[in-house]
Amino acid sequence: MSNIQRKRKGLDYRSGEPKKLIVFSLKDFDISQGQSFEDWEKNEILSNLMTRLRIISSYSVTEALQNKILKIYGDFPTNSEFKHPKHVPQGVNWAVILIQGKERIAGYVEDNIFYIVFLDKEHKFWITEKKHT
Q1: What confidence tens digit (pLDDT) does each residue in 18-76 have?
Q2: CB neighbour list of residue 133: distance below 8 Å, 6 or more residues apart
């Protein structure tokens, strides 16, 4: 039996040093843009999303960035097919979680919380120019 006790949820004391793990919130999920969970389920990619969330929830924000699962962009993109939802505060750090291929979850990060705002199966949130084509 370990002599280290877990004192707070969201912190990992197994290493002896507290580590704030990423947690998720759906409070700002926007059903008017992107896709629904039902759409992702119908397209057989919802399980990929859940697997990715399970994996990333064992990382800190820094570790997720280092593993290239999370990208933090900062301001809302100017070249996007999405619009900044009125219910999401201005000035948040917009970010995406890479699922597989083109699929992304778009949202924002505050402290160790990733607020899921959009499901983006076609990579239309942060549109980038294709390289080497």
Answers
A1: 789 999 999 999 999 999 999 999 999 999 999 999 999 999 999 999 999 999 999 99
A2: none
- Encode pLDDT of 84-130 as tens digits: 999 999 999 999 999 999 999 999 999 999 999 999 999 999 887 66
User: Options 1.10.1060, 3.30.2310, 1.10.10, 3.40.50; which CATH number does 23-120 get?
Assistant: 3.30.2310
Residue 91 CB neighbour total at 10 angstroms:
8
Contact 77, 71 (CB under 8 A): no
**Structure tokens given for 81:** 């097919």
Reduced DSSP (H G I as helix, E B as strand, rest coil) percent helix, strand, coil of the chain, to 5: 15, 25, 55
Q: Supply 27's token pair.
A: 């409070």
What residue spans define the domains of the chain? 23-120
Q: Which residues contact 41 (CB under 8 A, 6 or more apart)?
A: none
User: Which residues contact residue 79 at a Cβ distance below 8 angstroms, ignoring those fewer than 6 apart?
Assistant: 126, 127
